[in-house]
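Side project, low priority. Logging it here so it doesn't get lost.
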Amino acid sequence: MLPACLFLAVAAPFLAGTLAEPSRTDETLRAQAIAVLRDSRRKDGPRHEQVVERIVRGGPEVIDPLLDVLRDRRLPPLAEGDRPQTMSLPQREMILAALARWSPRVVLANIEARIAAEPTEANRVAALHVYSSHGVARNFSRLLELAGGTADPGADAQPLTAEEADALRSATARILARDPRGFRELASALERASPDELRPLLFAIGDTGDACSVAVLGPVLARHPELAPITISQARRVGASSDPSANRALADAVRPYLASARTELASSAARTLGELGDSSAAPALVEMLTSPDAARAESAHWALRRMSRLDFGLRREAWVAWLASEREWWELEAPQRLDELVKGSRATRLAAVATVGARTWRQHEASESVLAVLWDNDPLLRESACHALGQLASPTALPRLAEALADPEPRVSAAARGALVSIVGTSLPETPDECRKLLHLEN
């Protein structure tokens, strides 16, 4: 423990916002980094950004003491009368933000050297957090090795502790949010992961809120029915994606769980199918309205309301009539109207766009048909198509609507923006590129 006088001499310049230049020893840098982190717990202490900046000024020599704190999960006392501080979540975030400012090669080499010398759980959990700030999608295999306590690929995975599971979840979610290749790389890691490892990975997928994950959730549900409660609940968190085939595959895997004897699982499946806009589930959901189990009936009602944008309450007969009407339209009238979308006079095509855009069932299919009109040379037809796509509210239209933001006709680009806002339910940035990034539509 440093004497109080030495602590004040070392830490005071750092807390003031500058590092003491003379005699920048490792112990000095360690004390300065820990001092500013401890000081961040005070009500009037430095803000997150200030703490990170002050730590980074110490240079790469500060990496070691930061990794010590991550490993020990506490900040040691620096002066007489100090008590050790348990590392808080905000303090961990400050440390990771500082580490992210240095070269990944240097930081990852340092933590890997520690594991090679001492492969303890504490070091491995610290490494998972470090990878969350520096790792990329190709590191998912390494994350599984670290979480499972295995030094070599292919070694038997061990049951995860709560700390390992939390760190794996955090690291995975961060990498998925940062690396656009994340879900493609994660798919192969999910195939190799044990059920114990899959749990935090699935929660990480839900934490991202990224509908791109739909493509990986379906296969997990098919391979691991024992994890159905977690997988289905995370699928609901992310919602439908812009990939129709991925949505269908996931819905096909979820639909059988509507008949589960477990009320919680059946209810979760219903709400997830509502989020996915799974029209094939509508008949079963209508019948579910009459369930004596209130939770099942309410979940079915929520799902029907979500996919149709209508509300007939729990009145089964009203929903039956709605479904019969929609089925009749698709069987008898749809062929002609869908043909008119691309053929006939301008007036005929505009009428067809409006009619198809008013559908309240099978919206994904209706949306895919209307999308073709967005390529038309007529700006009025393109504008009308945007309005119809906003009504249908199918996420499958997001990529093409994002492209339409750059339409040379201002009325079309404005209608495309309005449709996107209707679908995602939030305001959007000004530029098309920023919109695509927000909607996770980057190439």
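Brief comment: Residues 4-99 form one domain.
Revisit when time allows.
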